[in-house]
Amino acid sequence: MVASAVFITDLQGKNIISRNYRGDVPMQKALERFQTYLLETTDESKKPVFHVDSNGDSYIYIALSNLYLCAVTTRNSNVALILTFLYRLSQVFKDYFGTLEEESIRDNFVIIYELLDETMDHGLPQALDSMILRSFITQGANRMSEDARNKPPVALTNAVSWRAEGIKHKKNEIFLDVVEKLNLLVSANGTVLHSEILGAVKMRSFLSGMPELKLGLNDKLMFEATGRANQAKGKAVELEDIKFHQCVRLARFENDRTISFIPPDGEFDLMTYRLNTHVKPLIWVEAVVEPHKGSRIEYMIKTRSQFKSRSVANNVEIIIPVPPDVDSPSFKCSVGSVSYLPDKDSAVWTIKQFHGGREYLMRAHFGLPSISASDIDPEAKKKGDNAWKAPIRVQFEIPYFTVSGIQVRYLKIIERSGYQALPWVRYITANGDYQLRMA
């Protein structure tokens, strides 16, 4: 990647802050070309990368809130890397200023110039970790001593750039959360049209020194790589689209599927994964709707938990769409409570704790106005019908449970001083885009 210049503009393309790294791009002309592109190109035709034939410059930009972050290059550069740099740079700004808005950019232009100088050098990306940058670029009036100013931060010269040296904690602990979200779409006849599991292994590390961790999962490919495929017997999980934090030694993982790493201090996502697999609905919902023209509409909702009885789903919300013009709501349910949200055209059935293997019923009754706009205007009728025939949505969270069956087999902590550390592991399954269509 070689970016000649980076600048931040408002939505009209007016320059707020710019930095010319290589001096091979006339900044004023570059800004004018970018502004012309924004103003003269329709929204449908705008692309995040465009090329100016007259001088061979390429513009790569991203839109965030009421700003544009744009990079200009005169070479055949890696566009994906430049886009990644712009997104990482925007995250650094958010970490520093809380929000990335035009006002926050103008209020902090001195620090932004410092950040632009440290995150890129002569068109090549450098440190883009907020924790490292904060060690020598501060927002307050504190100034580094002369000795410290003459030396680069240890994290920049260290092989482990994401972790500073000399970290000490009174109590050495590490918390590991395996969080899975279930995306599900079920047709009106009960057929699962789409199911997908999106998982993440989240960590909070409070370990002293420079510890090395090894994490073992019931990964199918790991069992095969170590010649223990016969030991798995259905307990192994085949993970897809695995993405790791930069601290993980990828060569080691590719070789024997061992997840070995020196963790950053604090909170981070160690890895994410996906499973495109058939999953039966954890919480099943059936709806029978009986509309009585011009007078009322009645719902009978039956829900059933289809997971083991020892598990409990917390804070379950079953969101049922209703016509936009109903009134006089009344509800009866065998458990929980029901509320009508007129601003969202829906009724919400809330069950605080939904034990596995249980089934509950809810009846809802709404009045309908005798004469409504939908009786007169066919378009209003069509719009209203589509609104209340939207899918039922379900929200939930099941602790100590993973829908994929992934398990942490071990978490080893190795540190030279040999201190004892406490690893804590927790599993959580929650809803993602979880929808069941009504008849």
Automatic annotation (TrEMBL):
SUPFAM superfamilies to which the protein is assigned, alphabetical: Second domain of Mu2 adaptin subunit (ap50) of ap2 adaptor (SSF49447), SNARE-like (SSF64356)
Biological process (GO), any one: vesicle-mediated transport
Highest rank taxon of the organism: Eukaryota
Principal localisation: membrane
Compartmental location: Endomembrane system
Keyword terms, alphabetized: Membrane, Protein transport, Transport
UniProt xrefs under InterPro entries: Adaptor_comp_med_subunit (IPR050431), AP2_Mu_C_sf (IPR036168), AP_mu_sigma_su (IPR022775), Clathrin_mu (IPR001392), Clathrin_mu_CS (IPR018240), Longin-like_dom_sf (IPR011012), MHD (IPR028565)
Pfam families for the chain: Adap_comp_sub, Clat_adaptor_s
Listed GO CC annotations: clathrin adaptor complex; endomembrane system
Domain MHD: 171-437
Family of the protein in this entry: Belongs to the adaptor complexes medium subunit family.
Identification of the protein by name: MHD domain-containing protein
Organism, as annotated: Phaeodactylum tricornutum (strain CCAP 1055/1)
